[in-house]
Design brief:
The protein has 213 residues and is an alpha+beta fold. The protein is 20% helix and 30% strand. It has one domain (2-212). It has helices at 38-46, 50-59, 86-91, 116-122, 156-159, 167-173, and strands spanning 2-4, 9-12, 23-28, 63-66, 77-81, 94-102, 106-111, 135-139, 143-151, 184-190, 200-201, 206-207, 211-212. 37% of the residues are buried.
Length: 213
Amino acid sequence: MTKSAAINTQIPLDENFFCDGAYYLLTSHSLGKSGIDPHALADILGSPTASQMNDLLRKGVCLPLAFEGDCAMDGGTLFVVGELDARHEKAWIACLTSKLSIPCGKFVMLCGGGDGDGLARAVSGKPADEDYCIYQTTDVPPGDYRVDVLAYLDSDTVMFMDEDSDEDAIREKYAHLPKVDERYVVHLTPLEDDVPLPPLVDEVNWPGVFEFR
């Protein structure tokens, strides 16, 4: 599935997208023009050291995302290229920030990332299987991007913010915020200044630690 986005455009994640797992990968068809083979990248992502992961993040090759549970971004994610509207800007609760190099103008979100054949297919330009949609390609203006993954009230990030999370208490705490339909927004803006590397989840050395407002 390929969708087009100009600056200041909102593109929803395809309703058929399905990720039977807790890991997602944001990248581009060109893998940030890194020259790395998709199978080699998948091998790294399968069991990265912190140094290997930070090198990928520093170069903008990809942004892997690790969540606590399966299907975290399915059915409730919006891609925004350019300015975020006032309602979504005010409503987000937690954020994870990195960068991506997308010189090819083909932004990809993939379920997983540790399978070489799956990653190679996702960045090949071939359409996703309609009956097994595990990646989506969005056309964006070529360039380097700051990427903010924004978590909203109904997201796993917020609802399971700690072991003692109580849904009713969380909803009451954030009742003053505007209501949005999305659980997550992947917000891409042209990179103006470099961004700090996101912290990694110790067990897997993937980004997955969100900063709360």
